[in-house]
């Protein structure tokens, strides 16, 4: 099996690096983006085998990017794992549980992230 290319998208650079280091230690190639617009460009540049996508980000949030990916024929089959702290943030942000239920994400991982749990989700989708 060839190396899998995973795009990690989060506006927290420390979280991106933590997840990237874990994935690289498992033999994956990792791309990095820090908001939804950067992620969109990265997906156009190189099609990932899977996207790990934060929800609450500037410029374009994870719900919007996920919905756009799943609506396009060329990207709809790319698995998406949403990282979410939304449950805790619902009272103080515009994000809601309904937004999450309406996306076609393939899995959801709560923050703070358990890297082994994330790896299990990644492995199951690849």
Provide the CATH top-level class: Alpha Beta
Quickly count the helices. Answer: 6
What is the general shape?
Answer: globular
Strand order of the largest sheet: 2-1-3-4-5
Quickly give the CATH architecture: 3-Layer(aba) Sandwich
What proportion of the residues is helical, as a percent range?
Answer: 40-55%
Mean pLDDT: 87
Number of domains: 1
Name the poorly predicted regions: 87-101
Number of strands: 5
Succession of helices and strands:
EHEHEHEHHEH
Kindly summarize this structure in a few lines.
The chain has 126 residues and is an alpha/beta fold.
SSE topology sketch:
Layout (H helix, E strand, L loop, with lengths): L4 E5 L3 H13 L3 E5 L2 H10 L4 E5 L7 H10 L8 E5 L1 H4 L7 H6 L4 E4 L4 H11 L1
Parallel strand pairs: 1-2, 1-3, 3-4, 4-5
Structure, described:
- The chain has 126 residues and is α/β, with parallel strands linked by helices.
- 43% of the residues lie in helices and 19% in strands.
- The protein is built from 6 helices and 5 strands; from the N terminus they run βαβαβαβααβα.
- The chain has helices spanning 13-25, 36-45, 62-71, 86-89, 97-102, 115-125, and strands at 5-9, 29-33, 50-54, 80-84, 107-110.
- It has a 5-stranded parallel β-sheet with strand order 2-1-3-4-5, with helices on both faces.
- Strand 1, helix 1 (13-25) and strand 2 form a beta-alpha-beta unit.
- The chain is globular.
